[in-house]
Amino acid sequence: MIEVKEVEKKFGRKKILKGVSFTANKGEITCLIGINGVGKTTILNAIMALTPIHKGQILIDGEPLKENTFEKITFIPDAITMLPQMTIAESMEFMHDFYASWNQERATELLSFFKLKPNDRIASLSKGNSAKVNLLLGLALDVDYVLMDEPFSGIDMFSREEIANVFTSHLIENRGVIITTHEVGDIEHLIDKVVLLDDGMVTKEFNAEEARENEGKSVIDVMREVYVR
Ligand SMILES: Nc1ncnc2c1ncn2[C@@H]1O[C@H](COP(=O)(O)OP(=O)(O)OP(=O)(O)O)[C@@H](O)[C@H]1O
């Protein structure tokens, strides 16, 4: 389980996170939802210790992040980090050399799942294919937790559908996934848990299935109650 406890974060004098708390379980897809600039990426960066926090605590399976935790968790940012002149195949080799947790079999499966061509250069990829390569490089690691920053942002409907299919496939298996988004529409059915953020705080944390079954409400219905007052 990933536990984010009372996390506070400032940039200069501006307080971005004002005591954010939530949990994300293994085997579930947790979605952080909030408008642009609310601090979604900052939360993922904080979980990965890529940015320092000023107060609070983040635990992964009960322990603070340490060097060996990086074999347990991966972060898929919203833009590809491979060099533009590299081919997809070279990017995969790079990851293979760098991470002990690289799973070549899964990488090859993802390559065909996304219908990507290994000899295409990163610089030549469309936004949709670039997002798919990014996802491939993260999901091919045998880790327990995957953090994804806006995996559906700015890409066409068909690419979004293909990416969404990964979430319901064995490629996610029983990992814990945290994704961020500001538009929940066409991924609503994939989400187990929702964490709504507003003004640097969690305004509501709920189980999407329970809201549907017990109250007959969609994620968007609950969002409307919280944000449109
Ligand atoms: N390195 C930084 N220095 C100063 N301010 C920053 C820095 N990184 C982020 N911020 C500010 O912190 C706030 C939260 O940024 P963040 O990127 O976490 O938001 P977000 O919810 O992910 O937004 P988006 O949906 O646009 O990606 C924004 O106001 C942003 O301008």
Detailed description of the structure:
The protein has 229 residues and is an alpha/beta fold. It has one domain (2-227): Rossmann fold. Helices cover 31% and strands 27% of the residues. The protein has seven helices and ten strands. The strands form two sheets. The protein has a six-stranded mixed sheet with strand order 6-7-8-3-9-10, sandwiched between helices. A four-stranded antiparallel sheet has the order 2-1-4-5, covered by helices on one side. Strand 9 and strand 10 (201-207) form a beta hairpin. The radius of gyration is 18 Å and the shape is globular. The mean pLDDT is 90. Bound molecules: adenosine-5'-triphosphate (ATP). Residues 11, 16, 34, 36-42, 182 line the site of adenosine-5'-triphosphate (ATP).
